[in-house]
Automatic annotation (TrEMBL):
It comes from the Bacteria. Gene3D superfamilies: 2,3-Dihydroxybiphenyl 1,2-Dioxygenase, domain 1 (3.10.180.10). CDD domains: PhnB_like (cd06588). This is VOC family protein. Residues 6-130 form the Glyoxalase/fosfomycin resistance/dioxygenase domain. Pfam families: Glyoxalase.
Length: 137
């Protein structure tokens, strides 16, 4: 298998809801395991939290995430996830779903470099950049 880079997101107890939301946006297969299932923590407050979740989409995206146990949560904002390509219909569909209920920082419109681009933060606090290359938008 070739090396690949996958975003891994940390959540504060809502990883299942977030990963299910991303499955609605992108489609694909979602697998989740809890701390109780994998971590031997069946009788702890973290037992039902997600220890590891992975979404693999038909477009070849892989998104991973987990709930940070106990006091370890620190999402920060030093990341964003970039979606790029030239399939305008697909990328605009992702944009509409991701930005719904979130905050738009840069509206989806033609930029000075010639592409259509937008930035938003979804309802789970994850920052997204969507770039549609070669569009006349």
């Amino acid at each position: 298998m070739a090396s690949r880079l996958n975003p891994y997101l940390n959540f504060e107890g809502d990883a299942r809801q977030a990963l299910e939301f991303y499955k609605e946006v992108f489609g694909g297969t979602l697998s989740v395991n809890t701390y109780g299932e994998l971590g031997g923590q069946a009788d702890t407050p973290d037992a039902d939290k997600i220890m590891h979740g992975m979404l693999e989409t038909p477009s070849g995206f892989t998104l991973m995430g987990a709930d940070s146990p106990g006091e370890d949560f620190n999402r920060g904002n030093a990341y964003s996830i970039a979606l790029t390509g030239d399939d305008e219909k697909e990328l605009r569909g992702y944009w509409e779903k991701l930005s719904a209920g979130g905050t738009v920082a840069v509206p989806m419109e033609k930029q000075m470099w010639g592409d259509v681009f937008g930035m938003c933060t979804d309802r789970f606090g994850v920052a997204w950049m969507v770039n549609i290359s070669g569009q006349q938008g």
